[in-house]
Amino acid sequence: MPTSFFRYPFEAGQIVTLKKEHPCGGSTWKIVRVASDATLTCTTCGHNMILKRSALEKACKDVKPAVDA
Fold first, then answer.
1. Quick one: which of 58, 32, 30 has its CA closest to 42?
2. Based on the structure, what is the number of domains in the chain?
3. What is the pLDDT of residue 40?
4. Across-strand partners of 38?
5. Are strands 60-64 and 15-18 parallel, antiparallel or unpaired?
6. Residue 36 is part of which domain span?
7. CB-based contact 16:28 (threshold 8 Å)
8. Mind listing the pLDDT tens digit for each residue in 13-45?
9. Is residue 5 part of a domain?
10. What pTM was estimated for this model as a whole?
């Protein structure tokens, strides 16, 4: 039986760089929540966005680890 496989093991708090820029000019997003879909917040303007996990994996260019504060 095949198991599910994710290219990136996304976690809340990580900073991801997407291939396309946001209209505000930023391309980095902070992951707020991850499940079958992911909630992201733009680090430049604070806009929230919800993407399916498969769409996030396709659009993701770089993943930086979560910063513990």
1. 30
2. 1
3. 95
4. 34, 51
5. antiparallel
6. 15-64
7. yes
8. 999 999 999 999 999 999 999 988 999 999 999
9. no
10. 0.81
Q: How far apart are the C-alpha atoms of 66 and 42, rounded to whole Å?
A: 15
Q: Which two tokens stand for residue 18?
A: 């997407």
Q: What are phi and psi of 53, to 5 degrees?
A: -60, -40
Q: Are strands 37-42 and 15-18 parallel, antiparallel or unpaired?
A: unpaired
Question: For the sheet containing 15-18, what is the strand order?
Answer: 48-52, 37-42, 28-34, 15-18, 60-64
Per the CB < 8 A criterion, the answer to whether 32 and 15 are in contact is no
Query: Is residue 31 within 8 Å of 16, Cβ to Cβ?
Result: yes
In the block, residue with structure tokens 């929540």: 33
pLDDT value, residue 20? 92
Contact 62, 16 (CB under 8 A): yes
